Amino acid sequence: MTLRPRPPRAEEPSADPFDLWLRRSVHQAYDAVLEEQVPEDLLRLCSDSRTEWVAMKERWLKDPPMAKPRARQR
User: Fold this and answer.
1) What does the pLDDT profile of the chain (74 residues) look like in tens digits?
2) How far is 30 from 27, CA to CA, in rounded Å?
3) From the CA atom positions of the chain, what is the Rg in Å?
């Protein structure tokens, strides 16, 4: 499943130079990230049934992608 790209929006005129600078800076920093593909696992997680989500959650809990060492309980 892929997302359709958003149509380009016309730049809205802003009377405030700070707003214009902020809008341009945010676009410059994050537009490339927004163009990346959404991982298939995340798309499935959002759209699958509860049963399938629980199975995926159990799989992730067994082998987390970025496992952190757990603190020992006393």
Assistant:
1) 556 666 666 555 667 899 999 999 999 999 998 888 888 888 777 776 777 778 878 888 888 766 555 666 66
2) 5
3) 20
